[in-house]
Amino acid sequence: MGGVRGPGRGWGALAAALALGGCALVGPDYIRPAAIVPAQYKEIKGWKIGEPRDGLNKGAWWQVFHDRELDALEAQVEISNQTLKADEANYREAQALIAEARADLFPTVTATGDAQRINSTGKPVTTLSLEGNATWTIDVWGKIRRTIESQASGAQASAADLANAKLSAQAALATAYYQLRETDSLHDLLADAVSQYNRSLDITKNQYGAGTSARSDVITAQAQVLAAQAQEINTGVARAQFEHAIAVLMGRPPAGLSIAHGALTHSVPPVPMSLPSTLLERRPDIAAAERTMQEQNALIGVAIAAYYPDVTLSGLFGVSGSPGVKSAAGSNPVWSIGLSIAQTLFNGGLTDAQVAAARATYEASVATYRETVLSAFQQVEDELVAIRVLGQEESVQVEAVKAAEQAVQIALNEYRAGTQNFTTVVTAEATALSDEETLLTTREQRIEAAVALIVALGGGWTEAKLLPQTE
User: Fold this and answer.
1) Domain residues of the chain, as ranges?
2) pLDDT tens, residue by residue, 414-464
3) 212-247 CB burial, b ≥16 within 10 A, e <16
4) What is the residue-wise DSSP string for 322-385?
5) Which class is domain 24-104+142-295+363-465?
6) What is the pLDDT of residues 304-331, one digit of tens each?
C-alpha cells in the first residue's frame, strides 16, 4: 500500500535539520535544461543582411522604419492598451503572491482582550484579561522557501508574458498600419486607373464619332471605368477597419482615431542579426517558458516536503484580574510555551502521487520550453526566407509593371491607328493594373515580414529586463 514514507526517516532528518539550525532544503535545485540551438541560421548563408548602427537593443524597435506617424501610434500601446492592462494586473498579482508566501517565514502574533462583570455574591466584580499569542511554523525542510522560489519564478514568467503581450500588440499595430498604407496606395492606384480608363473612354468616343469604331467599344470602356471606380470606393471598407483595429490596440474607441491618407513605403529597413544563441535571451516567450520550468521545479520541493513533519512553536502570555485590586495584574500572570510536531503516518499514497505529479508537470514544462525555442527559430527562418524571396519577386514584378505599361501605350496607339481592336487595349490595361496591384501586395508583404522578423528576434526586449530572482 502506498503512503507517506516511514516516520523514522522524518524524525531523523528533523533532528539533523534542527542541529544545523533549520538549513535543510528538500527537492532538486534548479538547473536550466539545454535547448536545441543551431550553430547558425540556415537562411543567413550566402547573403548578409545590413546592420544599422543603432541596432535593436531598445524598446522602440519600430523606429527603424523611420515613420513618424507609426512612432506616434506605437507610443500609445503601452499606455492605453486594455489587454496589456490586464496582463499588468496579473503581474502585480504574481508579485503579491511572493509577499504572501514570504509571510509564512515569520511568526503570527495575535492579541485578545476580555472584560467581564459578574455578580454571583451580591457584589459585582469586574475581571479584565489581556493575552498575546504567537505561533511559528519553522521552515525546517525549506517548504516555504521553495514556495517563495516558485512564486518568484512565476512572477518573472508573468513579467515575460507581459513583455510578450506588449510586443505582440506593437507588432499587430505595425502590421495593421502598413496594411492601411497598402490600402491607401491601392486607392491611389485605382484612382490613377480610373483616370487612365477615362482617357481610353475619350479615345473610343472620338473613334466612334469618326466612324472608325463600334458603339460596343464605348460601352466596354464605360464599364471598365465604372468597375475601377467601384474598386476604388471599396478600399474605404478595409481602410476603416484597419483604422478601427489600430484605435483598439491603442486603447481608444474606433471613433476616436483618424489617420491621414499616406502612401506605402517602398523600402524595407535592414534588420541586424545576431548569433542564434542570443535569441534565447531576446524572446520574452522563451523567457516565460524558462521561468515556468523553474517555478515547476521548485514545486517538486514543496511536494517532497510533505514527507517530513511540520514543526510549530507556540507561546502565550497575558494577565488577568480585577482592576480594583492594585496587585492583581502582577499576581495573575498567564503564560505558556510549547513545541508541536505533526507527521502524517498514512494517507493512501497521496504524497507519492503529489510528488510524481509535480515531477511530471516539470517535465512537461521542459518540453514546452524546448518547443518554444524550436518555434522561435522556425519563425526567424520563415521571415528571413520571406524577405529574401519577396525581394527577388519584387524586382521581377517591377519589370513586369514596366512591360505592362509599355504594352498599354502600344495598344492605345495601334487602336488610334485602326490596326488593333479595343479588346486588346482592355486586356493590356487590365494586365497592367493587375501587375501593379501584385507589386503593391509584394511590397507590403516584405514590410510585414520585416516587422515579423524583428518581433521573432525579440524586438527591443532582453532577458536582463526581468527582475532578479527572489530567493
Assistant:
1) 24-104+142-295+363-465
2) 999 888 899 999 999 999 999 999 999 999 999 999 999 989 988 877 777
3) ebeeebbebbeebbeebbebbeebeeebeebbbbbb
4) -TTSTTHHHH-EEEEEEEEEE-----TTHHHHHHHHHHHHHHHHHHHHHHHHHHHHHHHHHHHH
5) mainly alpha
6) 999 999 888 888 888 777 665 554 444 5
